[in-house]
Amino acid sequence: MPYPPEVSVVIPTRFRPELVLRAVRGALAQTVRNIEVIVVIDGPDAGTAAALDAVGDPRVRAVPLPASGGAPNARNVGARHARARWTALLDDDDEWLPDKLAVQLRMATECAAGMPIVASRLINRTPRAEFVIPRRLPDPGEPLSEYFTVRRGLFHGDGFIQTSTILAPTELLRAVPFTVGLRRQQELDWALRAVRHPGAQLLIAPDPLVVWHQDEDRPRISHETPWQEQLAWLRASRELFTPRAYAAFLMSVVSSMAAHTRSRAVFAELLAEARRHGRPAMIDYLTFLQIWLLPPHLRHTVRDLVLGRRLRRARPAVPADGAGPSAPQPPSDGGGPAPAARDADVPAQQPAQQPARLPGARS
Predict the structure, then answer these.
(1) H helix runs in 1-137, sequence order
(2) Rounded Cα–Cα distance for residues 91 and 247 (Å)
C-alpha cells in the first residue's frame, strides 16, 4: 500500500462480523484504491478479529479495544490511528456506493475552505420501503441547526446527516472528537460543533452515495434512549442552536420520544421549554400537538397516506465486488420514514446536481 493513503476509513464494530465484512468489502471496492480501512473492535470480540484476518487485504487494519467504550469513542480512536489527510466514517451495518470517496474527494479539493466536511444524500433501505434522504439541500445562508431541525411539512423533516456519509479532514476529527457517551444524535452533535471550527465548511453531495440499512427488527439505540437524556443533551447544547431550531427539535424529536408517557406534566414541561428558550412557529405547534394527541400507529398511518409511501420492490443486494445498486428514483409525492430517522424524513425529487455549501460561521 502506498504511504500515506489518500483516505483512512474508520469503522467501529462489535459482535457483528457478517455486517462489518460487508462494510469492509464496500470500502475496499471504492474507485479510490489508495485507502486504509481501520476497523475499531469495540471490546473483546474474537469472532470479528478472526473474520477480519481472513479478508487478506493489507489495506485492512484491526484496532481492538480492551473494553467497550461505545461508537463515538471507537470513531475517535480510529481518527487517532488514521494516517491519511482525510478520514471517512462508516458504520458497520451500512454500505458505500463505489464512487463515494471519489465524489467527495473531488468536492473537498475544489472547496476553498481549509477544513471542508463533505457529506451526501443516502439511500434509506428498510424491509418495507426505500427512499432517498435528505429531502433537500441547505438554502444559501441557512443556519445549519435550522436546516437539520426545522420542518416545512407536518409529517416530515427535511435536513439530515448520517455518520456513514461523512468525509472530513483527519485533523478536524481529532480537534473536534465525537462526544463519548452520547447515545443519540451523535452526527448532529458533531456536525454542529465541527462547523464552528476555524475554516470548517459543510458540503453535501446531491447524489446518494451510501446505502443506510435499517433492519426494523434489529434493536436500535434510537428506540431505547430516554427522552430525559435527549432533553438534557439539548439543554447543554443550546448554544449550538438558533432559537428557531431549538424549538423545532424540542417539539418534534424530543416530543416524539416523550409522547408515550401520555403525561400532562411532561407535555407542559416540553412546551414551556420550547417557548422559554426557543421561537416556535405554527408548524412546530401543529407538529407538537399531532405527536402528543395521535397514537403512534395512527400518526404513522396518516403520514404514509399523506406522503404516499412507496413500498420497496425486491431488488438485489449490493454485490461483494462493489457493483453497487443504482439509486432509486424518489417519487414526487415523497416516501416514508425509517424507524431510526427523525419522525418522517422522506425523499423529494433531487435538485440540480450542484453540491450544497454552507458556511460554518452560522449554526
Answers:
(1) 17-28, 46-53, 71-81, 100-110
(2) 30
Taking CA atoms, 244 is separated from 7, 171, 215, 304, 314, in Å, by 37, 31, 33, 27, 41
Question: Strands 130-133 and 86-89: what pairing?
Answer: unpaired
Cα gap 194→212, rounded to integer Å: 23
User: Would the pLDDT of 318 be above 80?
Assistant: no
325-353 burial, b at 16+ Cβ within 10 Å, e below that, comes to bebbebbeebbbbbebbbbbbbbbebeee
Cell numbers for 70: 461505545
**The three cell numbers locating residue 204:** 453535501
Q: Which grid coordinates belong to 251?
A: 417539539
pLDDT class of 304 with cuts at 50, 70, 90: low
Q: Characterize 55-73 residue by residue with b for buried, 16 or more Cβ atoms within 10 angstroms of its Cβ, and e for exposed.
A: beeebbbbbbbeeebbbbb
Give the rounded percent of residues in the chain with a pLDDT score beyond 90. 72
From CA 225, how far away is CA 210, in angstroms rounded?
A: 25
Looking up cell 461508537, which residue turns up?
71
Task: Tell me the H-state helices in 278-342.
Answer: 282-293, 296-307
Backbone phi and psi for residue 325, each to the nearest 5 degrees, phi listed first: -75, 150
Angle at 309 (CA atoms; ends 307, 310), nearest 5 degrees = 140
Instruction: Locate 17 and state its grid cell.
Output: 462480523
